[in-house]
Amino acid sequence: MNISTLIHSTHRKKFNVFPEILKKQKYHLIEKNSAVKKCRWLHKSLTENKVCYKQKFYGIQSHKCIQMTPTLSCNLKCKFCWRAHPTDIGIPENLKASNIDPEILVEKTIEAQRNILSGYKSQVILGKIDKKKYEESLNPCHAGYKS
Known about the structure:
The protein is of the alpha+beta class. It has helices spanning 3-24, 40-48, 53-58, 86-89, 102-117, 121-125, 131-137, and strands at residues 28-30, 34-37, 65-69, 142-145.
């Protein structure tokens, strides 16, 4: 095995592990390069009637907001960014970007959010979460871009 093959193999293994790390951190992956994660303010809004600053200052209801990112492999390298840079984890050039249609991305994002929220159904049945608020949360109308 030559060094080039070894390096490519190592990078491929890193890339294959990256989605598993994100799943352990409760990200719901969309296609190869987008993700949804339950916002803690969505949770607090449903379970404790607490809201984030966006609701307090701008009227964006916390329970109707999605926390998502359209790309996991941004190349801007912002100082406090949570994303791994593609070269840090060995993502090959041809896998960096996802060419998903924006309308399909929105549909799949809402589908992932509904999947996340399905875990609250038992709390609604027990009367611990307001049914109307829960049903509204299933049809989000705002997105908090996780940059």
